[in-house]
């Protein structure tokens, strides 16, 4: 399985970057220098800042807005990608990296020319993708990275909840460290695996007659890659497939089989709830990356309150982030008017998001007054609140966890990924690749900087081997 990249606020990328100087007449593939602006000492109040002018106003912040590559050529080259990255990073980056950006760009250009020859003649391949990934990782910022063509397409699909490109089982899984099989992290309600009776904590041992066993000498990464291929092959045809699984409950282990019929699904599963104990509702948020998340959370919390629940467990484990407007909308159901943040940007057009009575409002160096998200029937949780996090919780998850902790919520699990104090934009670069750039530093509504991560005290490891043998350690801790 690939490393999860972290998302927060998909916007127009580098909408107002400086015009580059023309290429040198003596070196056809010299990448032009791009000046880096200075943040103004006294930002002005503006209804719509320059970097949002191409979006049609704040109402468009709920969706992904991607600028087209600046050079719409039939066959884009490595030169085009290098220039795109320079313009986006120099014109927009406002994170906490101490790297000399101009030196990084120049070193990357020298390395690229030595490896690929003339940059305008260098076609875009898997090899150039690897180079661009290493180059942009040199910014040393967890929110600034390149997406290859497949990753960029998957990102766009998740934001629009587009149908998956092939039939799926409807689960999230992980290889069991040091063991055979794939343990289920999620079996989403009303999707094929859950309809066939599978649930979180079940360990898939075989699919379609093919055992999911670890090969001699396999590392965990190699085992996971093999499982990914086998599960993908078994589900791609959309035909019924027999799944053998192990389930451990109350210390008793059983092995059983069921038939699952994979089908095309949404790329972005919405939150769902279950009742792990009387009076307790477990609300699982797999992602913030699509519209409708906040609406669903408010509806589920309202339903839990009407059913008499007194303890809410919000499960953000493995949630790598998503739309900031959705995150603030979710936080509004937990902390009311304390939900919000201000994003400080390089151009000085700082943006404040705030939750007010069922709406997320935005303002630009002004009071937040422009609606960007509305919840039909707002809920406000007032009972006991526990937040589950792990090392896969990032960005929007860290923001929600921090805001909830400020009002007394208990954090349970592991230290989070560590980018919860910045905001990113994601846009297209040449060759249908994507580029994420940190464009803002985040403060809460009191003006205090948010922290890069959250750390429960004490920590409880989110142990996959324990889960595969019937023990969800962070959840058990939350229920005690």
From TrEMBL:
Pfam family, one: Peptidase_S41
Keyword Signal in annotation: yes
Matches recorded under InterPro entries: ClpP/crotonase-like_dom_sf, PDZ_sf, Tail-specific_protease
Stored Gene3D superfamilies: 2-enoyl-CoA Hydratase, Chain A, domain 1, 2.30.42.10
GO-annotated cellular components: outer membrane-bounded periplasmic space
E.C. numbers: 3.4.21.102
Top enzyme category: hydrolase
Signal sequence bounds: 1-25
Domain Tail specific protease span(s) in chain numbering: 238-457
Keywords: Hydrolase, Protease, Signal
Domain of life: Bacteria
Keyword Hydrolase: yes
Amino acid composition bias (Low complexity), ranges on this chain: 451-461
Any one GO molecular-function label of the UniProt entry: serine-type endopeptidase activity
GO biological process assignments: proteolysis; signal transduction
Region Disordered, residue ranges: 18-42, 442-463
SMART domains for this protein: TSPc
Name listed for the protein in its UniProt record: Carboxyl-terminal processing protease
């Amino acid at each position: 399985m690939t490393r999860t990249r972290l998302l927060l606020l998909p916007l127009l990328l580098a909408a107002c970057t400086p015009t580059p100087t023309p290429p040198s007449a003596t070196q056809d593939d010299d990448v032009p220098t791009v000046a880096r602006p200075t943040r103004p000492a006294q930002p002005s109040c503006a209804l719509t800042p320059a970097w949002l002018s191409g979006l049609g106003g704040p109402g468009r912040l709920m969706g992904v807005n991607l600028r087209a590559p600046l050079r719409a050529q039939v066959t884009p080259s490595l030169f085009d990608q290098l220039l795109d990255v320079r313009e986006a990073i120099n014109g927009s980056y406002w994170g906490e990296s101490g790297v000399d950006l101009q030196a990084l760009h120049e070193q990357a250009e020298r390395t690229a020319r030595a490896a690929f020859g003339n940059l305008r003649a260098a076609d875009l391949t898997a090899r150039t993708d690897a180079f661009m990934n290493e180059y942009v990782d040199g910014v040393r910022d967890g929110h600034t990275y390149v997406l290859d063509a497949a990753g960029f397409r998957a990102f766009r699909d998740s934001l629009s909840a587009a149908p998956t490109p092939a039939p799926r089982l409807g689960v999230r899984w992980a290889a069991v460290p040091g063991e055979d099989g794939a343990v289920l992290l999620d079996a989403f309600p009303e999707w094929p695996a859950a309809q066939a009776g599978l649930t979180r904590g079940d360990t898939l041992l075989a699919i379609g007659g093919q055992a999911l066993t670890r090969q001699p000498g396999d590392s965990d990464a190699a085992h996971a890659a093999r499982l990914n291929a086998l599960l993908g092959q078994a589900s791609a045809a959309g035909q019924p497939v027999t799944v053998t699984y192990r389930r451990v409950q109350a210390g008793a282990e059983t092995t059983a089989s069921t038939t699952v019929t994979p089908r095309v699904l949404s790329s972005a599963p919405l939150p769902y709830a279950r009742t792990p104990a009387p009076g307790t509702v477990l609300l699982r948020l797999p992602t913030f990356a699509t519209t409708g998340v906040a609406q669903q959370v408010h509806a589920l919390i309202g339903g839990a309150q009407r059913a008499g629940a007194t303890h809410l467990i919000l499960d953000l484990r493995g949630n790598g982030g998503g739309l900031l407007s959705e995150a603030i909308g979710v936080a509004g159901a937990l902390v009311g008017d304390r939900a919000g943040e201000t994003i400080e940007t390089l151009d000085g057009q700082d943006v404040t998001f705030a939750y007010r009575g069922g709406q997320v409002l935005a303002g630009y160096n002004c009071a937040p007054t422009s609606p960007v998200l509305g919840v039909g029937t707002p809920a406000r949780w007032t009972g006991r609140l526990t937040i589950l996090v792990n090392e896969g919780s990032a960005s929007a998850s860290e923001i929600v966890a921090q805001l909830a902790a400020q009002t007394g919520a208990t954090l349970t699990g592991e230290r989070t990924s560590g980018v919860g104090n910045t905001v990113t934009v994601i846009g297209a670069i040449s060759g249908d690749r994507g580029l994420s750039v940190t464009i803002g530093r985040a403060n809460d509504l009191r003006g205090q900087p948010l922290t890069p991560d959250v750390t429960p005290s004490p920590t409880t490891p989110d142990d996959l081997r324990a889960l595969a043998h019937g023990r969800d350690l962070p959840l058990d801790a939350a229920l005690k």
